[in-house]
Amino acid sequence: MSDAEGPFWAVARGDIPPPPAAKLLGWKVLEAERGSGRIRVQFEATQDFTNPMGNVQGGFLAAMLDDTLGPALATTFEAQEFAPTLELKVNFVRPAKPGTIYGSGWVVHRGGSVAFLQGELHNAEGELLATGSATARLVRLEPGGFKL
């Protein structure tokens, strides 16, 4: 990984492992283009993610949305840029069953210090499971500031 590109692209290419939370969610980049502000990712929801009804617990879906929206913004990052989530809103549309879940995320607006993001989760049949929106704060890290 070069300091000029940050960790996102190294993880997306498989040069380095994803962060532990993304690994737990079975996160995998399907489509991403530098500067696009858009991403398509995949998750693997296991039985360990289920509630007593056998559905994926909503907190895992929220985490999947966070790991969709943030990476959409990461496609626009400059060197040493990072964006912690300030606010995340999730709308649960229908129950999610264990299995493959697809996330699509995009940047609605990127300002100088704040970005607004939106996204969706779908099951393998293409049914909408959840939608989300987020606000993230753009920050510049010192060289070597990423801890991987």
Structure report:
- It is a single chain.
- This protein is of the alpha+beta class and 148 residues long.
- The strands form 2 sheets. A 6-stranded antiparallel beta sheet has the order 1-2-5-6-7-4, with helices on one face.
- It is built from 3 helices and 8 strands, in the order ααββαββββββ.
- The protein starts with 6 loop residues before the first helix and ends in an 8-residue tail after the last strand.
- Helix content is 20%, strand content 39%.
**How much β-strand is present in the residues?**
35-45%
Compute the number of helices.
3
Strand order of the largest sheet: 1-2-5-6-7-4
Please mark out the parts with pLDDT under 50 across 5 or more consecutive residues, or reply none.
Answer: none
Biggest sheet overview: 6 strands, antiparallel
State the gist of this model.
Helix content is 20%, strand content 39%. It is an alpha+beta fold and 148 residues long. Strand 1 and strand 2 (38-45) form a beta hairpin.
Summary tags:
148 residues; alpha+beta; six-stranded antiparallel beta sheet; two-stranded antiparallel ribbon; 3 helices
Topology:
Layout: H1 7-13, H2 20-24, E1 28-32, E2 38-45, H3 58-74, E3 81-82, E4 85-92, E5 99-110, E6 114-123, E7 128-137, E8 139-140
Antiparallel strand pairs: 1-2, 2-5, 3-8, 4-7, 5-6, 6-7
